[in-house]
Write a structure and sequence with these properties.
8 helices; 7 strands; 41% helix; alpha/beta; Rossmann fold; globular; 267 residues
Amino acid sequence: MTKEFKNKNEWGLILGGSSGLGLASAKKLASHGMNICIVHRNLRGEMTEVQDHFKMIENNGVSFMSFNKDVCRKEHLEEVVKAMKEKFGNEAKIKVLVHSIARGNLKPMRSEGASDQVLSGTDLSLTIQAMAISMYDWTQRMYFEGLFSKEASIIGFTSEGNVKVIEGYGAVSAAKVTLESISRQMAVEFAVKGLRVNCIQAGVTDTRSLRMIPKSSQIIEIARKRNPNGRITRPEDVADVVYLLCKEESRWINGTTLIVDGGEHLR
């Protein structure tokens, strides 16, 4: 395997990289020699499994940093920035920022039960902040700190729920639409500075976050039948495209949403 990022002092900053698409992306980039910094949020009881995955990343011989921090808290952002600047010195830069935050409220908009069982405006705001606006906040801060490489890539993950109604997905759907809108605007305004901003719309992927959605097993089965390949999307399928968007040959892809689902959306 060609490790085109090896010895280039380039880093992948993965927000939400301890599982799912973010973790798969981190592993893929590390396998090609990119240094990895992961910001994640996990309980103490989950850390043994998480650390095992992190060791796999380090076994690629790359530099590695991880922070069990909340990406939505300004003071945690400040802590990560300080640590990265100390680690980077004057040479290392961020080649790619991958936003893989899956923290959304899954309450319905209508319920026959108590009023606190339905989606509130606060629930909507918190979901949109975590799953959309935080990508902008982190990009802005890294840009003003001069931590991006000359040609860097910003990648956010969206889903088919951006245009389809899924039970309990109202807040997340709003966040995905916001993420795509912000990404397009960033793509135009940051292009002159060498930053490219794109979204990846993954097909249905069996991740921990998907399993939290009501009737997720049915969603998986329907997606399997819809997909012309006879299977659902795997995290590694998406990670492959994250890797492609880091390569020089992808430099003219900017401000778009790439559908990575094996043709699932066509049926």
